[in-house]
């Protein structure tokens, strides 16, 4: 059985900067994987390459065995690969419902039912059901993150890429969002790839981790092994205590409490 | 869409007033002013459909107006074609122009589209002077036939076409197409991430906008019986944008009202003779300073909220 996403020897240069170097990895259907690394490691660039927002120089990306090379972002979404942005980017001046409705109008899901009804269902799913009629300009940042996820889900992706979903959230907002992502993975069987810095929540969420530094993959493994991996420790400035919590193996389940 | 909503009642009321104008003010002069006002209304509504909804400002709407008007002029004056054909040919030529400007520039983000429209209109204005052997230069093309002979009938023809285009544009703007256009105004990258082909929607909307502007250009040409290089002028485009802002951007019906209001205002200020432009400008500054969201559409929204 081939993997849902197969990435091989991906390369991207920006002038003299080799931002992504020979990155290869595969994601199995139904898996939840993390992408870890210090700022500037090339994680977001990898996301932009996978989703067509930036074209890669060499290498290949296959989703379900079909190449995504050279496709524009909206075509890749309609193949079943959706993303969220690091900074929530809502459609200002529109209501939360309309924001999600736009994604329900993508060709991939256009004929799946009434867009407004489906948009409401996705808002229910992420816990924003009572805020459907509000203009997004008035929503707090945590809600915008959920809205961003609802919008990505509305395109019914096979694979969802989340770019730092916990960034900028208050303490009280992190655990509910982690629970939402866990629910989507467990009950919907959605395949997920997450970039994150908030290590504690993140490590409890994912099954395996791809660690990057200077545009390269430096280690792959389960979360508890990754935080002790010498190159990962070195990448975080050689200080093993710096922000790296003691992690229980993920098999322990919802051990956040 | 609810057909007996208060919006439709208000629209019918306005339509009734516009229909009654010739009886209320019997003079041919006022009918003429109103016919021109309705042409401007068509231009303002079509500008609003593309630029008001998507937020991609078009500083050269006169490109489509001039293209439509000169198409009418060439066909009618040079080839003796029946003026009714102008109503079909002018939108087609305007659409061709919109594709020529839209295809290369609307794929890009940044100011390229706005600049290309501005310079496209300026280039066409100069071309009409350079090729004066064909275009009549500054004098333009003269002696067009009217589409219908009486000014009264011409007013009603213009009114029917304005009402039709406004309803069509309003229906599209209220549909899922309009939702997508407003999302493009919000954030293009997010729109792509939602699986929407942003370039397609921008170009398609520009062609619809251009078709309506070209239609208005042909109506205007056959009413004035003359076309000239001023129909490509930047100042015409700017006037249309002012009418849109006074009416209320992004609402379609607001710009229609704004165009009619400002045309009537310009005419009624003739009593101030040489101080007319002073008064006009002061009034505009006053309106846009105290009502930055516009006059027509926001006022209607306020009235609506007070209704049961």
Give a description of the structure.
The complex is a heterodimer of chains A (257) and B (308). In chain A, a hairpin with a 2-residue loop joins strand 1 and strand 2. The model of chain A is unreliable at 248-257 (pLDDT under 50). Chain A is an alpha/beta fold. Chain A has nine helices and ten strands. Chain B has one domain (6-268, 277-306): Orthogonal Bundle (ABC transporter involved in vitamin B12 uptake, BtuC), CATH 1.10.3470. Chain B is mainly α and 308 residues long. The mean pLDDT of chain B is 93. The longest helix of chain B has 27 residues, at 28-54. Chain B has a two-stranded antiparallel ribbon with strand order 1-2. The interface between A and B is medium-sized, with 32 and 18 residues.
Give a nutshell description of this structure.
The complex is a heterodimer of chains A (257) and B (308). Chain A is of the alpha/beta class and 257 residues long. Chain A has helices spanning 43-50, 73-79, 96-104, 115-125, 141-153, 171-188, 199-205, 223-226, 230-235; strands spanning 5-14, 17-27, 32-36, 58-63, 66-67, 81-83, 159-163, 191-195, 208-213, 216-221.
Characteristic key phrases:
heterodimer; A: 257 residues; alpha/beta; Rossmann fold; 2 domains; six-stranded mixed sheet; 9 helices; 10 strands; 32% helix; disordered C terminus; B: 308 residues; mainly alpha; ABC transporter involved in vitamin B12 uptake, BtuC; 14 helices; 2 strands; globular
């Amino acid at each position: 059985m081939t993997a849902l996403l197969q990435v091989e020897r991906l390369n991207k240069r920006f002038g003299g900067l080799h931002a992504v170097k020979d990155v290869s990895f595969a994601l199995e259907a139904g898996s939840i994987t993390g992408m870890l690394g210090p700022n500037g490691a090339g994680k977001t660039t990898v996301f932009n390459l996978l989703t067509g927002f930036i074209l890669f120089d060499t290498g290949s990306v296959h989703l379900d065995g079909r190449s995504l090379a050279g496709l524009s972002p909206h075509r890749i979404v309609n193949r079943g690969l959706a993303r969220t942005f690091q900074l929530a980017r809502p459609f200002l001046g529109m209501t939360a419902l309309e924001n999600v409705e736009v994604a329900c109008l993508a060709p991939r899901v256009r004929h799946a039912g009434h867009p407004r009804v489906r948009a409401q269902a996705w808002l229910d799913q992420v816990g924003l059901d009572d805020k459907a009629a509000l203009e997004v300009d008035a929503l707090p940042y945590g809600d915008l993150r959920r809205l961003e996820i609802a919008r990505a889900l509305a395109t019914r992706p096979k694979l969802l890429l989340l770019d730092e979903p916990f960034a900028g959230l208050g303490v009280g907002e992190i655990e509910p969002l982690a629970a939402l992502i866990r629910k989507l993975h467990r009950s919907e069987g959605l395949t997920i790839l997450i970039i994150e810095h908030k290590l504690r929540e993140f490590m409890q969420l994912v099954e395996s981790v791809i660690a990057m530094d200077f545009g390269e993959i430096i280690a792959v493994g389960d979360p508890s092994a990754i935080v002790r991996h010498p190159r990962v420790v070195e990448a975080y400035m050689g200080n093993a205590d710096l922000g790296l919590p003691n992690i229980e193996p993920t098999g322990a389940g919802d051990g956040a409490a | 869409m609810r057909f007996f909503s208060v919006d439709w009642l208000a629209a019918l009321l306005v339509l009734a007033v516009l229909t009654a104008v010739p009886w209320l003010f019997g003079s041919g002069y006022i009918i003429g002013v109103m016919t021109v006002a309705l042409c401007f209304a068509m231009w303002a509504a079509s500008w609003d459909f593309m630029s008001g909804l998507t937020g991609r400002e078009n500083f050269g709407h006169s490109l489509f107006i001039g293209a439509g008007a000169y198409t009418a002029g060439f066909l009618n004056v040079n080839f003796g074609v029946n003026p009714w054909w102008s109503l079909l040919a002018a939108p087609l030529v305007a659409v061709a122009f919109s594709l020529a400007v839209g295809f290369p520039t609307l794929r890009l983000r940044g100011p390229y589209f706005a600049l290309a429209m501005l310079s496209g209109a300026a280039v066409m204005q100069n071309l009409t002077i350079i090729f004066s052997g064909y275009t009549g230069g500054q004098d333009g093309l003269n002696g067009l036939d009217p589409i219908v002979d009486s000014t009264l009938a011409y007013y009603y023809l213009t009114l029917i076409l304005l009402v039709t285009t406004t309803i069509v544009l309003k229906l599209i703007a209220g549909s899922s197409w309009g939702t997508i256009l407003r999302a493009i105004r919000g954030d293009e990258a997010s729109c792509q991430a939602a699986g929407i082909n942003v370039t397609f929607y921008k170009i398609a909307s520009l062609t619809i906008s251009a078709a309506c502007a070209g239609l208005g250009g042909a109506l205007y040409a056959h009413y004035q019986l003359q076309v000239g290089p001023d129909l490509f002028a930047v100042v015409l485009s700017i006037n249309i944008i002012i009418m849109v802002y006074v009416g209320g951007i992004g609402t379609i019906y607001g710009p229609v009202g704004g165009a009619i209001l400002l045309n009537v205002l310009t005419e009624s200020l003739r009593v101030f003779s040489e101080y007319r432009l002073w008064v006009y400008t002061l009034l505009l500054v006053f309106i846009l300073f105290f009502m930055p969201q516009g006059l027509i559409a926001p006022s209607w929204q306020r009235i609506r909220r007070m209704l049961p």
